[in-house]
Specification:
single chain, Structural Genomics Hypothetical 15.5 Kd Protein In mrcA-pckA Intergenic Region, Chain A, Pseudouridine synthase, 3 domains, 6 helices
């Protein structure tokens, strides 16, 4: 059974990912859910903190995690918003994960990309990426970029680092009143800033157009939850769930992405329309 000694006191999932960088957060969450992680011989659960010097062991962890390209899956219908010889922009469905967790797994955006664009199979630092230059949470929909060659992949990654890529999100939050328009609540030890404007106020909810000034994991979802405005359908950060019968995933949609084109350097704007389940959800709300 693989094990390591925790170098510092921190959240268990963070410690595991530092020791096993090939494991995604979703994989680690699955190991914790399946009771496959132990601290000093005792089973550990999600959200546990590990103390410096403790022994962390993992049962049934792959010795060589996903070192082969993802397998094509032509059953994944990609909604292509933009395509040229260097990259594509996809309107991601909310219920489809971005990439596989294990070898030969199918049913992800990456599988669909490799099926339609075989040249993407070997692009990225991690073979699970299949050219994807960024990710959206499972449950989040909207604009997602994949590169068709390595120079373009490197270009987009550099643009993200330099904050030259602007993303807009539509978020349906549970609140009857919006009385502030930005937050700087840190996530963990990292600074994070989100701003927003109200697109529509409903009786029990508000549709917000959000901009992230930083790119922290789950940033908008955490910020809205901390303001007591949880995103509709977000079962992770919304204890009341705000269940809408037709809604798939949670109502967070990457509606627009703006960036300098890798070849022409012209400002390129791609917009992703809402999926039908989100349109139905909005139509069900009372003004």
């Amino acid at each position: 059974m693989p094990f390591f000694i925790a170098p510092q006191t921190e959240r268990l999932d963070y410690s595991i990912q530092k020791q096993y960088p090939d494991l995604s957060r979703r994989q680690i969450k699955l190991y914790l859910k399946n009771n496959s992680v132990y601290i000093d011989g005792k089973r550990a659960s999600k959200g546990t903190f590990v103390s410096q010097g403790s022994t962390v062991s993992l049962d049934n962890i792959p010795q060589n995690t996903l070192r082969t390209p993802v397998t094509p899956d032509d059953s994944i219908g990609l909604n292509i918003l933009y395509e040229d010889k260097d990259f594509i922009v996809i309107n991601k469905e909310p219920t489809i994960p971005c990439h596989p967790l294990i070898q030969q797994e199918q049913g992800t955006i990456a599988n669909g990309i490799v099926s339609r664009y075989p040249e993407c199979a070997l692009i990225g630092n991690d073979l699970r990426e299949a050219g994807l230059v960024h990710r959206l949470d499972t449950g989040t929909s909207g604009c997602l970029i994949a590169a068709r060659n390595k120079p373009t992949w490197l270009y987009f990654r550099d643009m993200f680092v330099q904050k030259q890529i602007l993303k807009e999100y539509l978020a349906l939050v549970h609140t009857t009143k919006i009385d502030t328009y930005e937050t700087r609540i840190s996530i963990g030890k990292l600074s994070a800033k989100t701003t927003w404007s109200v697109q529509q106020q409903y009786k029990t909810h508000a549709l917000l157009l959000c901009h992230t000034q930083t790119g922290r994991r789950h940033q908008i979802r955490i910020h809205m939850s901390n303001l007591n405005w949880p995103i509709a359908g977000d079962t992770t950060y919304n204890p009341h769930h705000n269940v809408f019968m037709k809604l798939k995933g949670h109502f967070l949609h990457a509606s627009k992405i703006i960036f300098p084109h890798p070849v022409t350097k012209e400002t390129t704007t791609i917009e992703a329309p809402l999926s039908q389940d989100r349109i139905i959800t909005l139509n069900e709300l009372e003004l």
